[in-house]
Specification:
alpha+beta, Replicative DNA helicase, nucleotide-binding, 3-stranded antiparallel β-sheet, 2 domains, 166 residues, P-loop_NTPase, two-stranded parallel ribbon, 36% helix
Protein backbone atom coordinates (compact mmCIF):
# COMPACT_ATOMS: atom_id res chain seq x y z
CA UNK A 1 0.00 0.00 0.00
CA UNK A 2 1.53 3.26 -1.15
CA UNK A 3 1.04 6.39 0.91
CA UNK A 4 0.49 9.70 -0.86
CA UNK A 5 4.14 10.55 -0.08
CA UNK A 6 5.29 7.23 -1.61
CA UNK A 7 3.19 7.90 -4.71
CA UNK A 8 4.74 11.36 -4.99
CA UNK A 9 8.23 9.80 -4.88
CA UNK A 10 7.29 7.22 -7.53
CA UNK A 11 5.91 9.91 -9.83
CA UNK A 12 9.10 11.93 -9.37
CA UNK A 13 11.22 8.89 -10.25
CA UNK A 14 9.13 8.16 -13.36
CA UNK A 15 9.55 11.78 -14.43
CA UNK A 16 13.31 11.50 -13.98
CA UNK A 17 13.45 8.26 -16.00
CA UNK A 18 11.47 9.82 -18.84
CA UNK A 19 14.13 12.56 -19.12
CA UNK A 20 16.78 9.89 -19.62
CA UNK A 21 15.12 8.80 -22.87
CA UNK A 22 17.49 6.29 -24.48
CA UNK A 23 20.05 6.47 -21.66
CA UNK A 24 18.20 3.86 -19.59
CA UNK A 25 17.98 0.59 -21.50
CA UNK A 26 16.74 -2.78 -20.28
CA UNK A 27 17.78 -5.98 -22.01
CA UNK A 28 15.85 -8.86 -20.50
CA UNK A 29 17.10 -11.49 -22.94
CA UNK A 30 16.86 -14.98 -21.47
CA UNK A 31 19.99 -17.11 -21.22
CA UNK A 32 22.32 -14.16 -21.74
CA UNK A 33 25.96 -15.09 -22.30
CA UNK A 34 28.88 -12.74 -21.68
CA UNK A 35 29.32 -12.47 -25.47
CA UNK A 36 25.68 -11.58 -26.16
CA UNK A 37 25.74 -9.02 -23.34
CA UNK A 38 28.92 -7.47 -24.75
CA UNK A 39 27.40 -7.33 -28.25
CA UNK A 40 24.26 -5.66 -26.90
CA UNK A 41 26.23 -3.12 -24.84
CA UNK A 42 28.52 -2.27 -27.78
CA UNK A 43 25.55 -1.89 -30.16
CA UNK A 44 23.77 0.43 -27.73
CA UNK A 45 26.98 2.39 -27.10
CA UNK A 46 27.31 3.06 -30.85
CA UNK A 47 23.67 4.06 -31.07
CA UNK A 48 23.21 6.11 -27.86
CA UNK A 49 26.70 6.80 -26.49
CA UNK A 50 28.89 5.08 -23.93
CA UNK A 51 27.06 3.65 -20.92
CA UNK A 52 27.57 5.21 -17.49
CA UNK A 53 26.72 1.91 -15.80
CA UNK A 54 25.92 -1.71 -16.66
CA UNK A 55 23.75 -3.68 -14.23
CA UNK A 56 23.45 -7.48 -14.38
CA UNK A 57 20.48 -8.88 -12.46
CA UNK A 58 21.64 -11.43 -11.59
CA UNK A 59 24.95 -13.14 -12.37
CA UNK A 60 23.78 -16.73 -11.85
CA UNK A 61 21.11 -16.29 -14.55
CA UNK A 62 23.81 -15.83 -17.18
CA UNK A 63 25.05 -18.85 -19.06
CA UNK A 64 28.42 -19.90 -20.40
CA UNK A 65 28.33 -20.88 -24.10
CA UNK A 66 30.96 -23.59 -23.78
CA UNK A 67 30.17 -26.20 -21.17
CA UNK A 68 32.62 -26.29 -18.28
CA UNK A 69 33.31 -29.08 -15.78
CA UNK A 70 31.03 -27.45 -13.22
CA UNK A 71 28.94 -24.35 -12.55
CA UNK A 72 31.71 -22.78 -10.45
CA UNK A 73 33.99 -22.69 -13.50
CA UNK A 74 31.17 -21.20 -15.58
CA UNK A 75 30.61 -18.43 -13.00
CA UNK A 76 34.37 -17.83 -13.00
CA UNK A 77 34.28 -17.33 -16.80
CA UNK A 78 31.24 -15.03 -16.55
CA UNK A 79 32.87 -13.01 -13.78
CA UNK A 80 36.06 -12.49 -15.77
CA UNK A 81 34.07 -11.51 -18.85
CA UNK A 82 32.13 -8.89 -16.88
CA UNK A 83 35.40 -7.49 -15.53
CA UNK A 84 36.73 -7.24 -19.10
CA UNK A 85 33.49 -5.55 -20.22
CA UNK A 86 33.87 -2.93 -17.48
CA UNK A 87 37.39 -2.17 -18.69
CA UNK A 88 36.37 -2.07 -22.35
CA UNK A 89 33.42 0.26 -21.72
CA UNK A 90 35.26 2.24 -19.01
CA UNK A 91 32.24 2.11 -16.74
CA UNK A 92 31.25 0.13 -13.67
CA UNK A 93 29.50 -3.21 -14.06
CA UNK A 94 27.31 -4.00 -11.07
CA UNK A 95 26.54 -7.71 -10.93
CA UNK A 96 23.99 -8.89 -8.40
CA UNK A 97 24.67 -12.34 -7.02
CA UNK A 98 22.93 -15.01 -5.03
CA UNK A 99 24.34 -16.00 -1.67
CA UNK A 100 24.98 -19.49 -0.36
CA UNK A 101 22.37 -20.85 1.99
CA UNK A 102 25.07 -21.56 4.56
CA UNK A 103 24.53 -18.17 6.18
CA UNK A 104 21.08 -19.39 7.25
CA UNK A 105 22.82 -21.88 9.57
CA UNK A 106 24.91 -19.23 11.37
CA UNK A 107 23.91 -17.28 14.44
CA UNK A 108 25.04 -14.02 12.79
CA UNK A 109 23.19 -13.83 9.48
CA UNK A 110 25.17 -10.87 8.15
CA UNK A 111 26.61 -11.90 4.78
CA UNK A 112 30.33 -11.91 4.07
CA UNK A 113 32.49 -12.48 1.00
CA UNK A 114 32.58 -16.24 1.58
CA UNK A 115 28.80 -16.36 1.12
CA UNK A 116 28.94 -15.41 -2.57
CA UNK A 117 27.37 -18.31 -4.41
CA UNK A 118 29.32 -20.69 -6.65
CA UNK A 119 32.65 -18.95 -6.90
CA UNK A 120 35.60 -17.44 -5.13
CA UNK A 121 36.36 -15.74 -8.44
CA UNK A 122 33.59 -13.22 -7.73
CA UNK A 123 35.52 -12.09 -4.68
CA UNK A 124 38.77 -12.09 -6.64
CA UNK A 125 37.48 -10.21 -9.71
CA UNK A 126 35.36 -7.60 -7.93
CA UNK A 127 36.75 -4.18 -7.09
CA UNK A 128 33.93 -3.61 -4.60
CA UNK A 129 31.62 -6.08 -2.84
CA UNK A 130 28.54 -4.74 -1.08
CA UNK A 131 25.95 -6.62 0.95
CA UNK A 132 22.61 -5.50 2.34
CA UNK A 133 21.41 -6.84 5.67
CA UNK A 134 18.18 -6.17 7.56
CA UNK A 135 17.95 -7.73 11.00
CA UNK A 136 14.13 -7.71 10.92
CA UNK A 137 14.23 -10.39 8.19
CA UNK A 138 15.74 -12.85 10.70
CA UNK A 139 14.69 -11.42 14.06
CA UNK A 140 11.11 -10.20 14.42
CA UNK A 141 11.89 -8.74 17.87
CA UNK A 142 14.77 -6.60 16.65
CA UNK A 143 15.22 -3.10 17.99
CA UNK A 144 16.49 -2.07 14.56
CA UNK A 145 13.26 -2.34 12.59
CA UNK A 146 13.47 -0.28 9.41
CA UNK A 147 17.27 -0.20 9.51
CA UNK A 148 19.37 -1.60 6.67
CA UNK A 149 23.07 -2.27 6.99
CA UNK A 150 25.24 -1.68 3.95
CA UNK A 151 28.24 -3.96 4.48
CA UNK A 152 31.35 -3.16 2.49
CA UNK A 153 33.00 -6.57 2.13
CA UNK A 154 35.70 -5.51 -0.30
CA UNK A 155 37.04 -2.24 -1.62
CA UNK A 156 40.31 -2.23 -3.51
CA UNK A 157 41.00 1.44 -2.86
CA UNK A 158 39.71 1.93 0.67
CA UNK A 159 38.57 0.67 4.05
CA UNK A 160 35.92 -1.93 4.82
CA UNK A 161 33.02 -1.36 7.16
CA UNK A 162 29.29 -1.13 7.72
CA UNK A 163 26.93 1.82 7.35
CA UNK A 164 23.43 1.79 8.81
CA UNK A 165 20.61 3.55 7.00
CA UNK A 166 16.96 4.04 7.80
Amino acid sequence: NLTSHDLELVCGAVGMLSQWENRFLIDDTSYQTPATLRTSVRRNARKYGAPALILVDYLQLMVCPEKKENRTQEIQEISRSLKALAKEMTCPVIALSQLNRSLEQRADKRPNNGDLRESGSLEQDADVILFLYRDEVYNENTLERGVAELILGKQRQGPLGTVKAR
